[in-house]
Amino acid sequence: MNRVILCTGGYDHTIKFWESSTCLCRRTIQYPDSQVNVMCITPTKQYLSVGGNPHVKLYDINGNDSTPVTSFNGHSNNVTAMGFQNDMRWMFTSSEDKTVKIWDLRGKGTTRILTNSSGVNTAQLHPNQSELISGDQNGNIIMWDIGKEQKVETLVPDGKVPIRSLSLSKDGSTLVAVNNSGKCFIWGVDEEGDDLNEKKQTQNQQQQQQQSQTNETNINKKNEKEKEKEKDKEIEIETENKQENDQQGTNKQSMVSREKSRFKLKATINAHETYILKCLISPNSKLIATTSADKTIKIWNIDDQFSLNQTLTGHTRWVWSCVFSHDSNYLISVSSDHVARLWDLQKGETVIHYSGHHKALTSVALCDY
Protein backbone atom coordinates (compact mmCIF):
# COMPACT_ATOMS: atom_id res chain seq x y z
CA MET A 1 0.00 0.00 0.00
CA ASN A 2 1.38 3.41 -0.95
CA ARG A 3 1.97 5.91 1.80
CA VAL A 4 -0.26 8.98 1.65
CA ILE A 5 1.59 12.29 1.39
CA LEU A 6 -0.42 15.23 2.74
CA CYS A 7 1.11 18.68 3.21
CA THR A 8 -0.31 22.06 4.21
CA GLY A 9 1.23 25.52 4.27
CA GLY A 10 0.34 29.17 4.64
CA TYR A 11 1.13 32.37 6.48
CA ASP A 12 2.71 30.95 9.65
CA HIS A 13 5.92 30.18 7.69
CA THR A 14 5.65 26.43 8.21
CA ILE A 15 4.91 23.39 6.07
CA LYS A 16 3.31 20.48 7.89
CA PHE A 17 3.23 16.80 6.86
CA TRP A 18 0.21 14.92 8.20
CA GLU A 19 -0.82 11.35 8.86
CA SER A 20 -3.96 11.63 6.77
CA SER A 21 -6.06 9.09 8.66
CA THR A 22 -5.19 10.20 12.21
CA CYS A 23 -4.68 13.97 11.77
CA LEU A 24 -1.31 13.72 13.55
CA CYS A 25 1.44 16.04 12.33
CA ARG A 26 4.55 13.92 11.68
CA ARG A 27 6.91 16.62 10.40
CA THR A 28 7.19 20.41 10.27
CA ILE A 29 9.46 22.36 7.93
CA GLN A 30 10.21 25.98 8.73
CA TYR A 31 9.82 28.31 5.75
CA PRO A 32 11.08 31.67 7.04
CA ASP A 33 11.43 33.52 3.72
CA SER A 34 7.73 34.25 3.15
CA GLN A 35 4.25 32.81 3.25
CA VAL A 36 3.66 29.56 1.34
CA ASN A 37 1.60 30.30 -1.78
CA VAL A 38 1.58 26.97 -3.57
CA MET A 39 2.96 23.43 -3.21
CA CYS A 40 3.35 20.51 -5.59
CA ILE A 41 4.52 16.92 -5.11
CA THR A 42 6.82 15.67 -7.87
CA PRO A 43 5.71 12.74 -10.08
CA THR A 44 8.40 10.61 -8.41
CA LYS A 45 6.90 11.37 -4.96
CA GLN A 46 10.42 12.18 -3.79
CA TYR A 47 10.25 15.96 -3.52
CA LEU A 48 7.88 18.72 -2.45
CA SER A 49 8.15 21.93 -4.44
CA VAL A 50 7.17 25.09 -2.55
CA GLY A 51 6.48 28.50 -4.05
CA GLY A 52 6.57 31.65 -1.94
CA ASN A 53 7.56 35.25 -2.53
CA PRO A 54 9.57 35.16 -4.70
CA HIS A 55 11.52 31.90 -4.34
CA VAL A 56 10.84 28.27 -5.28
CA LYS A 57 12.36 25.56 -3.09
CA LEU A 58 12.54 21.79 -3.36
CA TYR A 59 12.40 19.60 -0.21
CA ASP A 60 13.10 15.90 0.25
CA ILE A 61 9.80 14.30 1.29
CA ASN A 62 11.46 11.22 2.80
CA GLY A 63 14.12 13.06 4.79
CA ASN A 64 14.06 14.93 8.08
CA ASP A 65 16.18 17.91 7.07
CA SER A 66 14.41 21.26 6.83
CA THR A 67 17.07 22.53 4.45
CA PRO A 68 15.88 22.57 0.84
CA VAL A 69 17.59 20.27 -1.64
CA THR A 70 17.76 23.15 -4.09
CA SER A 71 16.28 26.58 -4.73
CA PHE A 72 15.15 28.27 -7.92
CA ASN A 73 15.66 32.03 -7.94
CA GLY A 74 14.50 34.24 -10.76
CA HIS A 75 11.01 35.49 -10.00
CA SER A 76 10.59 38.95 -8.50
CA ASN A 77 7.09 38.56 -7.01
CA ASN A 78 4.69 35.95 -5.63
CA VAL A 79 4.88 32.50 -7.21
CA THR A 80 1.29 31.48 -7.99
CA ALA A 81 1.41 28.04 -9.64
CA MET A 82 3.81 25.24 -10.50
CA GLY A 83 3.94 21.82 -12.05
CA PHE A 84 6.26 19.18 -13.47
CA GLN A 85 6.87 17.60 -16.84
CA ASN A 86 6.03 13.89 -16.67
CA ASP A 87 9.63 12.69 -16.94
CA MET A 88 10.89 15.27 -14.43
CA ARG A 89 13.08 16.97 -17.02
CA TRP A 90 11.67 20.40 -16.20
CA MET A 91 9.10 22.26 -14.15
CA PHE A 92 7.13 25.43 -14.71
CA THR A 93 6.32 28.25 -12.32
CA SER A 94 4.03 31.25 -12.78
CA SER A 95 4.25 34.53 -10.93
CA GLU A 96 2.73 37.92 -10.33
CA ASP A 97 5.91 39.27 -11.97
CA LYS A 98 4.17 38.70 -15.36
CA THR A 99 6.15 35.60 -16.33
CA VAL A 100 5.91 31.84 -16.58
CA LYS A 101 9.34 30.26 -16.25
CA ILE A 102 10.49 26.83 -17.40
CA TRP A 103 13.26 25.39 -15.19
CA ASP A 104 15.64 22.65 -16.28
CA LEU A 105 15.72 20.09 -13.46
CA ARG A 106 18.81 18.41 -14.93
CA GLY A 107 20.81 21.58 -14.41
CA LYS A 108 20.28 25.04 -12.98
CA GLY A 109 18.55 28.06 -14.39
CA THR A 110 15.64 28.76 -16.67
CA THR A 111 15.45 27.38 -20.19
CA ARG A 112 12.44 29.38 -21.35
CA ILE A 113 10.47 32.42 -20.21
CA LEU A 114 6.89 33.13 -21.29
CA THR A 115 6.38 36.87 -20.89
CA ASN A 116 2.86 38.14 -20.18
CA SER A 117 1.37 41.64 -20.10
CA SER A 118 0.11 41.35 -16.50
CA GLY A 119 0.57 39.26 -13.38
CA VAL A 120 -0.02 35.53 -13.89
CA ASN A 121 -2.38 34.23 -11.19
CA THR A 122 -2.68 30.62 -12.31
CA ALA A 123 -1.23 28.16 -14.81
CA GLN A 124 -1.42 24.49 -15.75
CA LEU A 125 0.50 22.25 -18.11
CA HIS A 126 -1.53 20.65 -20.90
CA PRO A 127 -1.44 16.82 -20.96
CA ASN A 128 0.37 16.98 -24.32
CA GLN A 129 3.35 18.44 -22.36
CA SER A 130 4.04 20.98 -25.11
CA GLU A 131 1.43 23.60 -24.24
CA LEU A 132 0.55 25.53 -21.11
CA ILE A 133 -2.54 27.53 -20.15
CA SER A 134 -2.35 30.58 -17.89
CA GLY A 135 -4.81 33.05 -16.37
CA ASP A 136 -3.86 36.61 -15.52
CA GLN A 137 -4.76 39.75 -13.64
CA ASN A 138 -6.17 41.42 -16.78
CA GLY A 139 -8.80 38.71 -17.32
CA ASN A 140 -6.96 36.79 -20.05
CA ILE A 141 -6.71 33.02 -20.41
CA ILE A 142 -3.79 32.22 -22.69
CA MET A 143 -2.66 28.99 -24.30
CA TRP A 144 1.10 28.97 -24.89
CA ASP A 145 3.35 26.93 -27.16
CA ILE A 146 6.19 26.27 -24.71
CA GLY A 147 8.80 25.34 -27.30
CA LYS A 148 8.21 28.45 -29.39
CA GLU A 149 7.56 30.67 -26.35
CA GLN A 150 4.52 32.02 -28.22
CA LYS A 151 0.84 32.56 -27.53
CA VAL A 152 -1.42 30.16 -29.41
CA GLU A 153 -4.82 31.54 -28.40
CA THR A 154 -6.33 34.00 -25.93
CA LEU A 155 -9.75 33.93 -24.26
CA VAL A 156 -11.29 36.95 -22.53
CA PRO A 157 -14.40 35.56 -20.83
CA ASP A 158 -15.37 38.49 -18.60
CA GLY A 159 -13.61 41.65 -19.69
CA LYS A 160 -10.75 42.65 -17.39
CA VAL A 161 -12.03 40.78 -14.33
CA PRO A 162 -8.95 38.90 -13.03
CA ILE A 163 -8.78 35.15 -13.60
CA ARG A 164 -8.06 33.57 -10.22
CA SER A 165 -7.72 29.86 -10.97
CA LEU A 166 -8.06 27.34 -13.79
CA SER A 167 -8.09 23.56 -14.15
CA LEU A 168 -7.70 21.15 -17.07
CA SER A 169 -9.13 17.65 -17.09
CA LYS A 170 -6.64 14.78 -17.29
CA ASP A 171 -7.28 14.24 -20.99
CA GLY A 172 -7.20 17.97 -21.74
CA SER A 173 -10.75 17.99 -23.13
CA THR A 174 -12.28 20.29 -20.49
CA LEU A 175 -11.05 23.62 -19.14
CA VAL A 176 -12.54 25.35 -16.10
CA ALA A 177 -11.65 28.89 -15.05
CA VAL A 178 -12.94 31.14 -12.26
CA ASN A 179 -12.59 34.84 -11.57
CA ASN A 180 -12.87 37.56 -8.95
CA SER A 181 -16.54 38.23 -9.69
CA GLY A 182 -17.60 34.72 -8.64
CA LYS A 183 -18.12 33.35 -12.14
CA CYS A 184 -17.11 29.90 -13.34
CA PHE A 185 -16.51 29.23 -17.05
CA ILE A 186 -16.33 25.78 -18.64
CA TRP A 187 -14.97 25.10 -22.13
CA GLY A 188 -14.57 22.02 -24.26
CA VAL A 189 -11.05 21.92 -25.69
CA ASP A 190 -10.46 20.68 -29.23
CA GLU A 191 -7.70 18.16 -29.92
CA GLU A 192 -6.71 20.09 -33.03
CA GLY A 193 -3.51 21.30 -31.45
CA ASP A 194 -2.30 17.74 -30.89
CA ASP A 195 -3.25 16.78 -34.44
CA LEU A 196 -1.33 19.73 -35.84
CA ASN A 197 1.75 18.82 -33.80
CA GLU A 198 1.60 15.25 -35.12
CA LYS A 199 1.22 16.49 -38.70
CA LYS A 200 4.20 18.81 -38.31
CA GLN A 201 6.32 15.98 -36.88
CA THR A 202 5.34 13.77 -39.83
CA GLN A 203 6.15 16.55 -42.27
CA ASN A 204 9.54 17.11 -40.63
CA GLN A 205 10.34 13.40 -40.85
CA GLN A 206 9.37 13.33 -44.51
CA GLN A 207 11.48 16.39 -45.19
CA GLN A 208 14.51 14.78 -43.54
CA GLN A 209 14.07 11.66 -45.65
CA GLN A 210 13.84 13.76 -48.79
CA GLN A 211 16.97 15.68 -47.87
CA SER A 212 18.89 12.45 -47.33
CA GLN A 213 18.12 11.30 -50.87
CA THR A 214 20.06 12.46 -53.93
CA ASN A 215 18.25 15.10 -55.91
CA GLU A 216 18.80 13.71 -59.41
CA THR A 217 16.50 16.02 -61.34
CA ASN A 218 15.54 19.66 -61.39
CA ILE A 219 11.91 18.63 -60.95
CA ASN A 220 12.67 17.23 -57.49
CA LYS A 221 14.45 20.44 -56.59
CA LYS A 222 11.49 22.53 -57.71
CA ASN A 223 9.08 20.34 -55.73
CA GLU A 224 11.12 20.79 -52.59
CA LYS A 225 11.17 24.55 -53.05
CA GLU A 226 7.41 24.59 -53.56
CA LYS A 227 6.88 22.56 -50.38
CA GLU A 228 9.08 24.95 -48.43
CA LYS A 229 7.06 27.89 -49.74
CA GLU A 230 3.82 26.17 -48.72
CA LYS A 231 5.15 25.58 -45.21
CA ASP A 232 6.25 29.22 -44.99
CA LYS A 233 2.69 30.23 -45.87
CA GLU A 234 1.32 27.89 -43.17
CA ILE A 235 3.63 29.43 -40.57
CA GLU A 236 2.56 32.92 -41.63
CA ILE A 237 -1.11 31.96 -41.25
CA GLU A 238 -0.48 30.46 -37.79
CA THR A 239 1.39 33.49 -36.46
CA GLU A 240 -0.19 36.45 -38.23
CA ASN A 241 -2.61 37.28 -35.38
CA LYS A 242 -0.42 37.09 -32.26
CA GLN A 243 -1.63 40.23 -30.45
CA GLU A 244 -3.85 39.91 -27.41
CA ASN A 245 -7.43 41.12 -27.75
CA ASP A 246 -8.66 42.95 -24.68
CA GLN A 247 -12.06 43.75 -26.19
CA GLN A 248 -15.04 44.63 -24.04
CA GLY A 249 -17.97 42.39 -23.25
CA THR A 250 -18.70 39.10 -21.63
CA ASN A 251 -17.75 35.70 -23.05
CA LYS A 252 -15.61 37.19 -25.86
CA GLN A 253 -12.99 34.79 -27.17
CA SER A 254 -10.09 36.41 -29.01
CA MET A 255 -8.10 34.45 -31.56
CA VAL A 256 -4.33 34.86 -31.55
CA SER A 257 -3.02 32.38 -34.10
CA ARG A 258 -5.99 30.35 -35.39
CA GLU A 259 -8.99 31.26 -37.46
CA LYS A 260 -10.96 28.56 -35.62
CA SER A 261 -10.94 28.47 -31.83
CA ARG A 262 -9.96 25.28 -30.04
CA PHE A 263 -12.20 26.33 -27.15
CA LYS A 264 -15.98 25.97 -27.14
CA LEU A 265 -17.78 27.61 -24.22
CA LYS A 266 -20.12 25.07 -22.63
CA ALA A 267 -21.35 26.95 -19.56
CA THR A 268 -21.06 30.13 -17.52
CA ILE A 269 -22.08 29.74 -13.88
CA ASN A 270 -22.62 32.44 -11.28
CA ALA A 271 -21.06 30.09 -8.77
CA HIS A 272 -20.37 32.39 -5.81
CA GLU A 273 -21.28 35.94 -4.85
CA THR A 274 -17.68 36.94 -4.22
CA TYR A 275 -14.13 35.89 -5.13
CA ILE A 276 -13.57 32.31 -6.24
CA LEU A 277 -10.08 31.39 -5.10
CA LYS A 278 -9.68 27.91 -6.55
CA CYS A 279 -11.29 25.61 -9.09
CA LEU A 280 -10.38 21.97 -9.61
CA ILE A 281 -11.60 19.14 -11.82
CA SER A 282 -11.69 15.77 -10.05
CA PRO A 283 -9.38 12.95 -11.22
CA ASN A 284 -12.36 11.03 -12.65
CA SER A 285 -13.43 14.18 -14.57
CA LYS A 286 -16.96 14.05 -13.15
CA LEU A 287 -16.84 16.86 -10.58
CA ILE A 288 -15.69 20.46 -10.30
CA ALA A 289 -14.84 22.00 -6.94
CA THR A 290 -14.85 25.76 -6.37
CA THR A 291 -13.62 27.40 -3.17
CA SER A 292 -14.49 30.95 -2.25
CA ALA A 293 -14.12 33.94 0.00
CA ASP A 294 -17.74 33.24 1.01
CA LYS A 295 -16.37 30.44 3.30
CA THR A 296 -17.90 27.62 1.23
CA ILE A 297 -16.85 24.92 -1.19
CA LYS A 298 -19.23 24.02 -4.00
CA ILE A 299 -19.21 20.77 -5.94
CA TRP A 300 -20.58 20.75 -9.50
CA ASN A 301 -21.64 17.81 -11.71
CA ILE A 302 -19.90 17.78 -15.09
CA ASP A 303 -22.14 15.01 -16.48
CA ASP A 304 -25.36 16.73 -15.39
CA GLN A 305 -25.06 20.02 -17.26
CA PHE A 306 -22.75 21.41 -14.57
CA SER A 307 -25.50 21.42 -11.96
CA LEU A 308 -24.74 22.08 -8.29
CA ASN A 309 -24.10 18.80 -6.50
CA GLN A 310 -23.63 20.14 -2.98
CA THR A 311 -22.31 23.01 -0.90
CA LEU A 312 -19.80 22.17 1.82
CA THR A 313 -19.98 24.44 4.85
CA GLY A 314 -17.91 24.49 8.02
CA HIS A 315 -14.96 26.76 7.39
CA THR A 316 -15.31 30.10 9.15
CA ARG A 317 -13.12 32.20 6.84
CA TRP A 318 -11.94 32.26 3.22
CA VAL A 319 -11.33 28.86 1.64
CA TRP A 320 -8.13 29.24 -0.38
CA SER A 321 -7.50 25.89 -1.97
CA CYS A 322 -8.48 22.24 -2.21
CA VAL A 323 -7.40 18.89 -3.60
CA PHE A 324 -9.31 15.72 -4.50
CA SER A 325 -8.33 12.23 -3.44
CA HIS A 326 -7.25 9.99 -6.31
CA ASP A 327 -10.61 8.14 -6.28
CA SER A 328 -12.51 11.47 -6.29
CA ASN A 329 -14.51 10.44 -3.20
CA TYR A 330 -12.80 12.85 -0.80
CA LEU A 331 -11.70 16.47 -0.80
CA ILE A 332 -9.22 18.31 1.42
CA SER A 333 -9.63 22.07 1.81
CA VAL A 334 -7.57 24.78 3.52
CA SER A 335 -8.78 28.08 4.91
CA SER A 336 -7.87 31.33 6.60
CA ASP A 337 -9.42 29.80 9.74
CA HIS A 338 -6.07 27.94 10.19
CA VAL A 339 -7.67 24.51 9.62
CA ALA A 340 -7.55 21.89 6.87
CA ARG A 341 -10.61 19.66 6.48
CA LEU A 342 -11.06 16.23 4.93
CA TRP A 343 -14.53 15.94 3.39
CA ASP A 344 -16.43 12.76 2.57
CA LEU A 345 -18.18 13.79 -0.64
CA GLN A 346 -20.70 10.98 -0.41
CA LYS A 347 -21.92 12.29 2.94
CA GLY A 348 -21.07 15.95 2.47
CA GLU A 349 -19.44 16.00 5.89
CA THR A 350 -16.07 16.78 7.43
CA VAL A 351 -14.36 13.55 8.45
CA ILE A 352 -11.10 14.92 9.88
CA HIS A 353 -9.82 18.32 11.02
CA TYR A 354 -6.09 18.99 10.65
CA SER A 355 -5.28 21.61 13.30
CA GLY A 356 -1.85 22.96 14.21
CA HIS A 357 -1.20 26.02 12.09
CA HIS A 358 -1.71 29.39 13.77
CA LYS A 359 -2.27 31.58 10.70
CA ALA A 360 -4.14 31.37 7.40
CA LEU A 361 -3.68 28.22 5.30
CA THR A 362 -3.37 28.90 1.59
CA SER A 363 -1.96 25.71 0.07
CA VAL A 364 -2.42 21.94 0.22
CA ALA A 365 -0.70 19.07 -1.62
CA LEU A 366 -1.80 15.43 -1.66
CA CYS A 367 -0.56 12.18 -3.19
CA ASP A 368 -2.58 9.09 -2.18
CA TYR A 369 -1.79 6.66 -4.99
Automatic annotation (TrEMBL):
GO terms for cellular component: TORC1 complex; TORC2 complex. Belongs to the WD repeat LST8 family. Residues 202-218 have a biased composition (Low complexity). PROSITE patterns: WD_REPEATS_1, WD_REPEATS_2, WD_REPEATS_REGION. Residues 219-245 have a biased composition (Basic and acidic residues). InterPro entries: MLST8, Quinoprotein_ADH-like_sf, WD40/YVTN_repeat-like_dom_sf, WD40_PAC1, WD40_repeat_CS, WD40_rpt. Keywords: Repeat, WD repeat. It comes from Anaeramoeba flamelloides. Residues 246-256 have a biased composition (Polar residues). Residues 196-259 are annotated as: Disordered. WD repeats lie at residues 72-113, 113-154, 269-310, 312-353. It holds the Pfam family WD40. Signal peptide: none annotated. SUPFAM superfamilies: Quinoprotein alcohol dehydrogenase-like. The keyword Repeat applies. This is Target of rapamycin complex subunit LST8. GO terms for biological process: regulation of actin cytoskeleton organization; TOR signaling.
